[in-house]
Amino acid sequence: MNKFIKAAVLSVAAAALVLPTFGTAQAGDNDDAWAAGAVGLVTGTLIGGAIASQPRYYHEPAYIDPEPEYYEPRPVYRARPVYRRVVVENYGLEPWTPAWYRYCSQRYRSFDPESGTFIGYDGRSHFCTAG
User: Fold this and answer.
1) Cα(27)–Cα(91) distance, integer angstroms
2) How far apart are CA 81 and CA 79, in angstroms?
3) Is 104 within the bounds of a domain?
4) In a domain, 37, yes or no
5) What Cα–Cα distance (Å) separates residue 93 from each residue in 21, 88, 89?
6) Total domain count for the chain?
7) Domain residues for 21?
8) CB contact at 8 A, 130 and 104
9) Is 76 within a domain?
10) Is pLDDT of 88 > 60?
11) What is the pLDDT of residues 10-59, one digit of tens each?
């Protein structure tokens, strides 16, 4: 409906521009005036319809996130493993013997026979001293 009103207003405006251009000499010829008015009306309707049918580009304002700030991560310091010489106290069984393997395997569930260590309650590896 809004497009129709715009087209009608533009048609009337175009006709109002065309009709006064006819001078008094043409005033006696009534048929030509009506023809010129009809041509002006059709031309105005076509031009008005073309103008009114132009697409409207309306963009709603959209929220755009700003670029996130980048913070340099702080360095992670990890403790280096400390390698100590293992001092084996002799409690009666010589390490790496079958009796020593048997004793450590039965005593500690986390016993590793390849390294001869077990995991203690403190989370560290301890060498099995049998005796």
Assistant:
1) 137
2) 6
3) yes
4) yes
5) 128, 11, 10
6) 2
7) 2-52
8) yes
9) no
10) no
11) 666 666 666 666 555 555 556 777 777 888 888 888 888 877 777 766 66
